[in-house]
Design goal:
The complex is a heterodimer of chains A (370) and B (182).
Chain A lengths: L1 H13 L7 E7 L6 E7 L3 E3 L4 E2 L2 E10 L13 H4 E6 L4 E4 L2 E4 L2 H22 L9 E5 L2 E3 L12 E4 L4 E4 L14 H16 L5 H7 L6 H24 L11 H7 L18 E2 L2 E2 L1 H14 L6 H16 L2 H4 L6 H9 L5 H9 L15
Chain B lengths: L1 H8 L10 E13 L6 E14 L8 E13 L9 E23 L2 E22 L2 E22 L2 E11 L4 E11 L1
Antiparallel strand pairs in B: 1-2, 1-8, 2-3, 3-4, 4-5, 5-6, 6-7, 7-8
Classes of the chains: A alpha/beta (370), B mainly beta (182).
């Protein structure tokens, strides 16, 4: 008698069933770039409750300590120093018809972010990108010590936080449209930074910075490489989201327009030195980055998107053979390698497409665009 | 039902069913945030129909059926203009356990109570993304337990309780129940 009651109780407790990693997320689902709800299977997820899987694990209640007084080890070697506190998250959801439906905004945001991280990694791996990397920690809405002193944003941003080899999803305060962690393009942008770190910098950025600390030009070289990194990241973001204005749903019009990849943008001669332009006394890598992104996007008119993406990956890999050791980078160093990686028959048209945009440094393209 | 509600408000000198009581419950709920960064508050309301069973069973047994509701949404300060997520729960719970009178006597006394039993929860999750809206309603089952203190004064019954459920639903509940014998 007791066992039958126990059986009924167990059936009753489990009658609702599990979600089997099918979750409802926010994604760009309309051809015009609009966001909507869609059901997806998170194939890499190993623990739905903890938003943890083979590509990422999301942590909450995080405190980041931006202590830059000590040398930083590459590839996350100093992570424990920068992440003062973190906790595994516990998603809130209900299961309807086998689909996990997040029941609070944070859970919906984290599930959607995981989906975008999974998409980003799958996309890059399909292109042959070297991403045999362990799951990356994602720090959800962390508190940041010393943020003001270091000009680190406290909100309304997402970042690949290189010192911890992890991603930071900051809370949305001023930006109250589609939150950044739910924007496919934004997540891909950050994943592309990680790829750039491990390919172009060979995962040795901080070692290279330390080795060239006494070089008076190191800052200019780093700024130019950083701007190029931003441009490449925007290019991959637009490629995955199929939206060259991917920021538009999450940021004010002026910010989105400044990064729109469909604009004809030229590299200002004043920027070639690597010190300009500046915002509030700091180098602004996004201006020159927008030139890089728009140039790469323009190549999609000449070659297929996949062909251009693979050319960019090859260029990053070639750059990786020299960048960390030499710590020298000029605008055009990546772009001419991209042109060189395109099929030979397409190179003349590609050169024509970039000539005006890179007139200020066109001599650096001589080996590919005679 | 109207008569029973009036009975909560108007003292009755001679309850027809002194072992039955109907109570109005007001709850303060704390939901652990999914990112573990703290707790979100919510309010709940409910009705409890309780029966003291000492007349029929040896021991200080008590049984209750409760209907309660609470709602929660995105906390202020974390709102998105484009996106809203809301949640509404309706709980039907059966509880049985014991109440020990530690002070005074039956109708003028107080003590401790501990009740446990099955809970059927109807949860409605609402999403809005721009002008696109969708709702999902699901049934969930759990074992819910509550412990607290109670006090009887003539036909009135007061109790303050803390409750939680298994499987853990990230909620701690505190309820104040004001009841009256039927």
């Amino acid at each position: 008698m007791k066992s039958s009651w126990l059986g009924v109780l167990l059936w009753w407790m489990t009658a609702c069933g599990g979600a089997d990693n099918v979750v409802r997320v926010v994604d760009i689902i309309y051809p015009d770039g609009r966001f909507g709800f869609t059901d997806v299977t998170l194939t890499t997820l190993t623990d739905l409750d903890a938003a943890s899987g083979d590509v990422a694990q999301i942590f909450g209640n995080v405190t980041l300590d931006l202590d830059l007084s000590q040398p930083i080890a590459d590839a996350g070697g100093s992570r424990s120093r920068f992440v003062a506190e973190s906790h595994a998250v516990t998603l809130h959801y209900v299961v309807a018809d086998g689909v996990a439906i997040a029941s609070d905004l944070d859970s919906l945001m984290m599930l959607t972010s995981y989906w975008h991280f999974e998409q980003a990694v799958a996309h890059l791996r399909a292109l042959g990108a070297p991403l045999p990397l362990p799951p990356v920690p994602v720090y959800y809405q962390p508190k940041v010590k010393n943020a003001d002193e270091l000009n680190f944003p406290a909100a309304d941003n997402a970042a690949f936080f290189v010192p911890a080899d992890g991603f930071v999803l900051l809370p949305s305060r001023a930006l109250t449209d589609v939150p950044l962690p739910m924007n496919t393009g934004v997540v891909m942008h950050e994943m592309a930074h990680r790829l750039f770190y491990y390919t172009a910098w060979q995962g040795q950025l901080f070692a290279a910075l330390a080795a060239h600390a006494s070089d008076a030009q190191a800052g200019a070289h780093f700024n130019r490489a950083k701007a190029t990194d931003e441009g490449v990241a925007d290019f991959f973001a637009a490629a995955l989201s199929h939206d060259p204005a991917f920021l538009g749903k999450s940021t004010p019009v002026d910010v989105a327009q400044a990064r729109n990849l469909t604009e004809l943008r030229t590299l200002d001669p004043a920027w070639v030195g690597g010190a300009e332009p500046q915002i509030e006394g700091s180098y602004n890598p996004y201006a020159a980055g927008a030139v890089v992104a728009a140039a790469l996007w323009k190549l999609v008119d000449i070659a297929s998107l996949g062909t251009v993406e693979q050319a960019v990956l090859q260029a990053e890999a070639e750059l990786g053979a020299v960048l960390a050791d030499s710590f020298t980078y000029q605008f055009g160093d990546l772009e001419r390698r991209v042109l060189g990686a395109l099929p030979a028959a397409l190179q003349p048209a590609a050169c024509d497409a970039l000539a005006l945009r890179y007139a200020s440094v066109w001599s650096r393209f001589a080996s590919v665009c005679p | 039902m109207i008569g029973a509600l009036l009975a909560v408000l108007l003292p009755s000198a001679t309850p027809a069913f002194p072992n039955l009581d109907l109570g109005l419950a007001v709850g303060a709920l704390a939901a652990r945030r999914s990112d573990q960064s703290g707790w979100d508050p919510a309010m709940g309301l409910g009705l409890h129909l309780g029966a003291s069973l000492e007349r029929y069973l040896p021991g200080p047994w008590r049984a209750e059926v409760g209907l309660s509701s609470d709602t929660s949404g995105t906390p202020w300060g974390q709102r998105s203009a484009a996106l809203e997520v809301g949640r509404w729960d309706l709980d039907l719970a059966l509880r049985a356990g014991a109440e020990w009178t530690l002070v005074g006597e039956n109708r003028k006394g107080g003590g401790l109570l501990a009740l446990v039993g099955p809970r059927l929860r109807t949860t409605r999750v609402s999403y809005r993304l721009y002008d696109e809206q969708e709702h999902h309603t699901v049934l969930q089952t759990a074992i819910a337990g509550t412990v607290g203190v109670f006090a009887n004064y003539q036909a009135f019954r007061f109790s303050v309780r803390l409750g939680a459920a298994w499987p853990w639903d990230h909620n701690l509940e505190a309820w104040t129940v004001i009841g009256h014998a039927l």
